[in-house]
Amino acid sequence: MKRLLLPAFIAVIALVYCEAPRASATPAAPKLTLPVIADTVRFAFIGDMGTGKRPQYEVAAQMVEYRKLFPYDFVITLGDNIYGSQTAAGMKAKFEDPYQALLSDGVSFFASIGNHDNINQRLYKPFNMGGKRYYKFKKGKVEFYALDSNYMDREQTKWLETELSGSNSPWKICYFHHPLYSHARFHGPDTDLRATLEPVFQKYGVSVVFSGHEHVYERLKPQRGITYFVLGNSGELRPHDLSPSPDTAKGFDTDQAFGMAEVTDDALYFQIVSRGGETVDSGVVSRQAKPAAASAAGG
Amino acid sequence: MSWTRRKKIAKKRRPPLSLSNRSFKRLAVAIALTAFSASAFQTPSPAVNADAKVLADFNSRVAEYMKLRKKVSESGKLKKPVTSQASINRHQHLLAHEIREAREQARQGDIFTPEIAEIFRRLIKLAEDGSNGAKMKQSLRRAEPVNLVLRVNRAYPDELPVQSSPPTLLANLPELPKELDYRLVGPNLILRDIEANLIIDFFNQAIKKP
User: Considering only CB atoms, which chain B residues are within 8 Å of A134?
Assistant: First the structure.
């Protein structure tokens, strides 16, 4: 019996080692699929990253590598920016240190709040939230709306509707933590949030929505004209959690990842890169046609 | 037949006004909520019904807390600028400390009295039974329910995630000042001071276990 224990132990270790997601021993050389056109809006996106563990740092290193080829100006975060302790030391280890190269190069971060985040992160200067749970900002022809999906009260939905209806931007992009669509097993979609937000997105011509929460990557086929990205694996990872459906355009659940996007007048190009530097998804999204309400108003 | 006689007959033939139990409840709550929102944080107008009276009571208890909070947050100690993460934490802890001191005697049920808690349960049940009820329940099941021993004046721990509050549920509850929010903790509902990250009050079994 004792003789059998050692081989069994070795077999288990070998199995765990093979199954455990890890970065390639030698990261792949960056290979950009984005067009890099002059005067476009370029940004990166990350979600569920604030672990302070090695994979987060390795994803951050890839973000730096890719920025040499694709000089993005800012990063949007899809929530769960900081897990656990939110002390100054925690913020340093889980945000300032991993992204130090980007921060010192002048890259701005625009955060949204996840269910693991202390709401007072809205006061943390590098997150550029202006002390608000939800807010908007504009870059070129793109208006971004960072929402607090933990607490979608009447005031927030009213604010969103007012802001979207008054916007002349051809591109409207919303981002928040909880996905409206997802085929990951752990959480699944937030159907009540979907019932509240999707009609507003449709009415006012939101073309693209980014979320996190699920520790995988998934791009959905357009749902009612809107393309949904779920990216919650920039630090955390829930391997093999995706159960793709016919609505899944692309999924990736075996390593950490981050995304990049480039927005032209009518198209949003995207590229998703794994911790090992491999491109796991890329493509282009068309802007949603001008909504009926805005057209009627002569916008 | 005279006009008055015809009117009398028509009146007799008209079926009696009947409302199902659920419809009646909805109507009562609608009246209560209308009265509530109209009187938000003001002296309550004459009560439309018993529910409106209880909700107006909730209103005034929240207003009372806000008065105390304003007094506390205007103290010199809390007026330092909040810039770094260290100062954000210091501010949060100091505000929580000052509120705790000022509410040393606070007990569970000071704001959510048994009557108020009961109305809240009914409002939540109404949301559960409404057209978005199934979606709301699904969202609740997927909201990473947390376990926490609740105590008034206790901080909500950083290490614990917050359960997301479904929009349908929030839409059925009375609005709060922006300094406060409702949070579900398992099946229980807490009233939290956001900036101080402090549990102000709570009641149990707000929802059936998700």
Answer: none
Report the pLDDT value the prediction gives residue B159, as an integer from 0 to 100.
84
**Helix residue spans in chain A (DSSP H):** 2-19, 54-69, 88-91, 100-104, 154-165, 191-203, 292-296
Classified as helix, coil or strand, A54 is helix
**What letter represents residue A38's amino acid?**
A
Compute the distance between CA of residue A49 and CA of residue A257 in angstroms, rounded to an integer.
Answer: 10
- What one-letter code names the amino acid at B16? P
Q: Which two tokens stand for residue B21?
A: 């139990």
Burial of A70 (0-12, 13-18, 19+ CB in 10 A): buried
Contact B197 A190 (CB under 8 A): no
User: How far is residue A282's CA from residue A271's CA, in Å, rounded to a whole number?
Assistant: 4
Contact criterion met (CB < 8 Å) for B158 and A85: yes
pLDDT tens digits, one per residue of B169-210: 999 999 999 999 999 999 999 999 999 999 999 999 999 865
Burial code (b: 16+ CB inside 10 Å, e: under 16) for A263-296 equals bbeebbbbbbbbbbbbbbbbeebebbeebeebee
**Residue found by looking up tokens 């009926």 in the block:** A292
Distance from CA of A239 to the nearest CA of B (A): 19
Rg, chain A, Cα only = 20
Phi, psi of A58, rounded to the nearest 5 degrees: -70, -35
Q: Which of A63, A72, A73, A60 is nearest to A30 (CA)?
A: A63
pLDDT of residue B34: 45
* Nearest beta carbon to residue B158 from set A86, A115, A125: A86
Residues of chain A that touch chain B, judged by Cβ-Cβ distance less than 8 Å: 84-88, 91-92, 115-116, 118-120, 123-125, 149-155, 157, 178, 187-196
Please give the DSSP secondary-structure letter assigned to residue A106.
T
- pLDDT tens track for A156-171: 999 999 999 999 999 9
* pTM of the entire predicted model: 0.84
Report the gap between the CA of A186 and the closest CA in chain B (Å): 8
Residues 6+ apart with CB under 8 A from A138: A144, A169
Contact A124 B195 (CB under 8 A): no
Q: How far is CA B167 from the centre of its chain?
A: 13
> How many of the other CB atoms lie within 10 Å of CB of A141?
17
